[in-house]
Structure formats: C-alpha cells, structure tokens
C-alpha cells in the first residue's frame, strides 16, 4: 500500500509547495504515519475542541480577563453586575462555584476637620444644595445591602399623608432619604411624571420610601406635574425632572418612574446602572412577561452620561404612546444597550386605574417614531422649553409644577410633520 505522503497518489496538478512539504515530512526518522484523510480530519477536530475548551472553559489557563456567567450566577449577583457602584467589587472567574465576593471597606483614622485619606467627592461640596449632603467620614454602605429579603409585601391601601409622615419620619422634607450610619453608594433622583392621581401617589410614596430605606440609597423623589388643561406629555415631564433635579442635588443617575408601578422584590436595586436599565421587566398586568423585546417603558434608569448621549427624551409626544419606543431607539442609536434585571427580581404590581381623558391616544406617534434615529440629536434636552411655575418641598416628595408651553410647541411640530 502506498504511503499517504507519496506524491504518486496525488493529482498531477497539485501545488509543488504541497509536494515539497510532503517530502519534508516523509524525510523524518521513521517517515510519516500511514494515516488516512479521515484520520487527519479527526485529529484536526480534536485539536480545535481542545483549543476551545482551553480558551473558554478554563479562563485561568490563559490568564485572560474575567468573564461573568449569567447562567451560573444567582439572581442578585446578576443585579449587581449591572450596577455602577462607589467602591470596588470582586467577581469570581467563570466556571467556578464560588460566591461573588465583596472588597472590605477600610476605616481611616483622621484628625477632626481633616479630609486626609477620605474618598474624593465627585461633586463640588462647597456649592449650596437644596438637600443635606452625607458626611464624608462615613464608610461606604455594604454591597449588597444587608437587610434585603427578596419578595416583599406590596401595600395597596391608600394611607393618609399624616399617617405616612409619622411612618417615614426620618425622610427629610422634600422626599430626601439617605442612610444615617454609612455613606450611600448611589445618589439617585426618582422622577415621577404625574397628574390627578392623589391616591396612587400616596400608595407609591409609601411603598417606595420603605424600599429605598432598606436599599441604603441616597435619593430624592421628584414629582413633576403640568398645569391644568394641558395634554399630558410624559417624556417632556421627565426631561424637566432631570434638568431641575440637577439644580437641586448632585445626583449620579435618575430613575424615571410611572406612579402606578410598585416593586415586589427588594433585591430590585434602585441603583446607578452600567448600561441604561429597563427596570419594570415583569408586571402583573402582562402576566409577568415582557410585552415585546425592545420595550423600555414603565421604569428606566440612566446615568447623567447616558442622558447626555441620547439627548434625553423626546419633547414631541403629546398624549399616550410612543415615547417609550422612541427612548429605546435613541438608546440603540447612541451605541448603548438596554439592560434588565432577572425576571424573578424585577417584578411589579400595577395599580388599576381608568382612562385619563387628559392623556388621549397620540395618533401621530408612528410618524414621530419613524424619524427618531435621525431626529434624536435635535429633539430632547437641547430643545427643552418650559416655564417653571413652582417648586415646593412637600413632606415626602418635591413637587415641580410647570407650564409645558403646549400651544407653541405643537405649532413648531406641525412645521415638521403637518399631520401632527
């Protein structure tokens, strides 16, 4: 039987360089093994399989970067993965069974009045803010917060404001809450677009203050309301809440929150995200499933940088519908990705309510959505126009009352899209 390395078994037009390679292999002591093409193919597949296992199955083999597995992590670890936190986090390599570890905070001994050795502030502490700043000499709060239990009771009754003031007596006037014995890792503005749902607002405030206290967040609840006889513009109200919020406190991020959604799990952290985060993943109204994959409505969390990159929300969605999908398109167009907590954690109960006559269906929304990718840099924070009517610190929230200037805004929109 002829050797596989024998050039006589090959076609006449075979490349001369290949023939030279065969002759070189055959010149080795003992010659080339008498292997068939099938055996060579099997050997090649085995080599590929070994390389795949070495590179992916055992990251420490190559000393490569840390990779995190969503499959092997427990749900809370997956939440923390999408959290931009002050202070270091340590994660184990993919493929190990070890739990996520937390770097220990260090206690610094300093002289009274000295700032030596303290973490550097990311804001101007000499500036006068509307709410109390936390002390610098506190250690950062543990991560994750120690009092989280998972599923929690949702209070659907509507307590009076007097009752809630007694219950939440540690909340600062204006709806500012923060931990007293440690330094919060997140400063979060909760923006709530609102009108004429007083009982919903009380239920919302009661549930959210209870949750955020357990999560050790430094937060302020900002309720943004238009004046009477104006069509509801949810997206523009959220732009206003963001813009006015930055004047009141050095927030690191904002969570834009519908007033009728109540969290069911305290592991659903109201923290600053690495990527824009869709928080209301599983709502009881939709059988705890996403209505569609690209949805970015209900509750969304974004940092200051994210808001600048996407130019905030659109100002042109008057009435119900479209602004959430517009936000999703903006996010993707800016090169960002929408992240979500696990479905078993990001659960919400929706307060039932009737139709809002001041929030009619926006029949122009599809025409606007078709132009989002091209218009988002010219429609948003950089074109935001409104008149401030009043900012009032209530016991459990800050009320921002605004004139949306609907008449002139709609006239401007009609120049672009006459049907609107």
From TrEMBL:
Region (Disordered): 92-122
Pathway the protein acts in: Protein modification; protein glycosylation
CDD domains: b4GalT
Transmembrane segments: 40-62
EC category: transferase
Membrane topology: Single-pass type II membrane protein
EC code(s) of this entry: 2.4.1.-
Record has Transmembrane helix as a keyword: yes
InterPro entries for the chain: Galactosyl_T, Galactosyl_T_C, Galactosyl_T_N, Nucleotide-diphossugar_trans
Pfam families: Glyco_transf_7C, Glyco_transf_7N
Family stated for the protein in its record: Belongs to the glycosyltransferase 7 family.
Chief location: membrane
Domain Galactosyltransferase C-terminal: from-to ranges: 277-353
Keyword list, A-Z: Glycoprotein, Glycosyltransferase, Manganese, Membrane, Metal-binding, Signal-anchor, Transferase, Transmembrane, Transmembrane helix
Name of this protein: Beta-1,4-N-acetylgalactosaminyltransferase
Recorded coiled-coil stretches: none
Organism: Diploscapter pachys
Gene3D superfamilies linked: Spore Coat Polysaccharide Biosynthesis Protein SpsA, Chain A
Origin superkingdom: Eukaryota
A cellular-component GO term for this protein: membrane
Location of the protein in the cell: Membrane
Cofactor(s) annotated in UniProt: Mn(2+)
């Amino acid at each position: 039987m002829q050797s596989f390395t024998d050039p006589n078994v090959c076609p006449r037009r075979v490349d001369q360089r290949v023939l030279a390679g065969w002759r070189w292999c055959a010149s080795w002591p003992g010659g080339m093994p008498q292997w068939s093409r099938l055996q060579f193919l099997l050997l090649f597949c085995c080599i590929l399989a070994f390389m795949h296992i070495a590179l992916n199955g055992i990251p420490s083999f190559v000393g490569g970067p840390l990779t995190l597995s969503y499959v092997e992590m427990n749900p809370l670890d997956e939440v923390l993965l999408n959290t931009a936190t002050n202070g270091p986090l340590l994660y184990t390599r993919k493929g190990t069974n070890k739990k996520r570890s937390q770097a220990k905070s260090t206690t610094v001994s300093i002289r009274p009045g000295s700032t030596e050795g303290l973490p550097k502030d990311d804001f101007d502490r000499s500036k006068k803010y509307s709410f109390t700043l936390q002390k610098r000499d506190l250690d950062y709060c543990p991560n994750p917060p120690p009092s989280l239990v998972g599923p929690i009771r949702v209070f659907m009754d509507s307590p009076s404001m007097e009752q809630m003031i007694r219950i939440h007596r540690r909340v600062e006037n204006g709806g500012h809450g923060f931990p007293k014995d440690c330094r919060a890792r997140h400063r979060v503005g909760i923006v709530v677009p609102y009108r004429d749902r007083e009982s919903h607002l009380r239920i919302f405030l009661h549930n959210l203050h209870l949750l955020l206290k357990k999560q050790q967040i430094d937060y302020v609840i900002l309720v943004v309301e238009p004046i009477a006889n104006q069509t509801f513009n949810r997206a523009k109200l959220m732009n206003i809440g963001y813009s006015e919020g930055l004047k009141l406190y050095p927030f690191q991020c904002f969570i834009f929150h519908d007033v009728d959604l109540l969290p069911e799990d305290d592991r659903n952290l109201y923290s600053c995200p690495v990527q824009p985060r869709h928080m209301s993943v599983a709502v009881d109204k939709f059988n705890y499933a996403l209505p569609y994959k690209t949805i970015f409505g209900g509750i969304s969390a974004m940092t200051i940088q994210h808001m600048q990159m996407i130019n905030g929300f659109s100002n042109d969605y008057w009435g119900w519908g479209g602004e959430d999908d517009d936000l999703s398109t903006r996010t993707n167009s800016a090169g960002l990705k929408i992240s979500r907590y696990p479905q078993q954690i990001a659960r919400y109960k929706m307060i039932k309510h009737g139709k809002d006559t001041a929030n009619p269906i926006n029949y122009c929304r599809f025409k606007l959505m078709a132009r989002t990718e091209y218009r988002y840099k010219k429609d948003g924070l950089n074109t935001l126009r409104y008149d401030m009517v009043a900012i009032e610190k209530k016991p459990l929230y800050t009320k921002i009352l605004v004139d949306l200037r609907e008449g002139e805004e709609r006239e401007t929109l009609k120049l672009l899209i006459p049907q609107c």
